[in-house]
Amino acid sequence: MMFETILFFAFSAVLVGAALGVILSRNPVYSALLLVLCFFNSAVIWLMLDAEFLGIVLVLVYVGAVMVLFLFVVMMLDVNLEELRKGLAGYWPLAAAVAGLMVFAILNVVVAKHLGGLALRAAPSLPAGYSNTRVLGEALFTRYAYPAQLAAVILLVASIAAIVLTLRHRTGLKPQNVGEQVKVSAKDRVRLVKMAPEKRP
Amino acid sequence: MNAFSVAAFTSGLNLATPEIFLALAGCAILLLDLLIGDSRRHWTAALSIAALLVTAVLAGGVEVNGPVTALGGMFLVDAMSQALKIVALVIVAVAFVYSVEYMRHRGILKGEYFVLGLFATLGILVLISAASLVTVYLGLELLSLCLYAMVAFDRDSGRSAESAIKYFVLGSLASGTLLYGMSIIYGVTGSLDLGSIAAAVQGGLATNIGLLFGIAFVIVAIGFKFGAVPFHMWIPDVYEGSPTCVTLFVGSAPKIAAFALAMRLLVDGLGGAQVDWGQMLVVLSVLSMAIGNVVAIAQTNLKRMLGYSTISHVGYILLGILAGTSQGYQSAMFYTITYVIVAAGSFGMILLLSRHGFEADRIEDFKGLNARSPWFAGMMAIFMFSLAGLPPFIGFWAKLGVIQAVLGINAVWLAVVAVLFSVVGAYYYLRVVKMMYFDEPVDAARIDGSPLMRAVLSANALLVLLLGIAPGALFVVCAHALP
Question: Which of A151, A163, A164 is the closest to B138 by Cβ?
Fold first, then answer.
């Protein structure tokens, strides 16, 4: 138990540090890489909670697909951050005032009354042979069938929206016609021309 | 958590017939649209309108004897959900009727617009019938995602893209805030089910500091979706920047969804903590009435002015909700329904006056409308009088209702503030009427629009007048919905 607690705090500390790095880093590539670190640490914490499916999905989907795409976009766009940051410095007194007010308000609440009802409860011990994947699958297709369907509709809408906003039928393009290419025979392509031999001048 | 039973799940499906039909109709129209040529795109619109009206009939046909949950306890049908669904479906159908000509003139008459609209409506229905935090969130996301895409629909317009990005970024922030609040509420009460949350809050959690944190985050999200001050920044830009048909869509039916969101989360789920969220809503409500009405005076763009007008009306709707009495909820529902009807009509008037290459979205464009078309000047005057809250139009009864509700909880100062700002608001609505009747026309173009659109718009305005003379029926509906 003790060892797990140490592990939990170690990974949490790295997680929080990396999360801070994401927003504080000046270089967007570092931010993206630190976000990958965040995802790995959250995945490990999920693994420690016996939620191995969620942990692996987080790594596969977010680290493997989403963040790689992010990195590509960041590298390809070549955003000039200095340009973007130009006017920002003038706002710091306002930002500091708002942030100070928020910190004051939150501290007030937390110090005035400690967070009751948020007491830590030990997770229930799991039966032998417990499979996170199986339990999730069963829940998703029985009790949560309705929200799962709704999520499917949301994904459909996302793909419709992406196509509507980006698909353009431009005229003057010369796309390949695969049918024509397959049907073509040698005599359409190659023409043998007989000509008299020429003499080098 | 009770055990899952297949029989109970399938027997609950008939309560969700309207939603299932609408989802299938959306998919079918998406496919059928591929077979319809660009010149006959109005058939897609006709099919979508037919689908909405059939869904409304199905929603009316669901038998409701008190609140019933279904689909694993995540779907709730009660008298309120039934009434709100029918209103939302009819309003979206009306919005589609108004949109077709405008979109054709701008070359953006595409089938996907109507498909996105149908799925947005599905999101509204899901939200109205939500009985769990999960379905509240999914319904809201479905609605918002469709709206973001619709705002950007005119993709060759830079302003449209700009407002879509603003809306998307701020909207995602609000969704994140909502999720954060929900996760805290789940952590404190231990349930996603709104009924169990209500029981936990009643059972002594109402003063729990963690719960208050959660409520604050939820209020921020509700304020954003409604467009209440100080979460209103997106409204004027999105209203002005998007194509007018989308402004009409965003400005009408989603307000019903926002009302349902507030009712489901605050009243159904967190009703036991009414003292806390009531105080937060007082701030939002007073600021909305003040800033909405005062800033609207300075606008020259009619869409922007109506945007600020929306913000002020949201303040009045929140007055009814914050009262925390059934009289207050009824008056807020009455206000929302009447506002949506009037807003659909006023944006419909902008669409009617617009033509190829001319948006008709400046207030000056309405100058001398009486000389060009006395009938439609009269219709616009009805909408403006109703928004200003003058008797005998429906807006008067709506304002009277919420003011009576706050007087019912002895908040006289709120009633005084509400009346004062409605007087301020009357100025800019009456300015439009003055321009229509007493100024010279700057534009002599004939007022076009399909016969169907003219008929529906006239019916819309006459309904505002008729309901204003005889508001009893709508009062009965609201009283029945929220006893």
Answer: A151
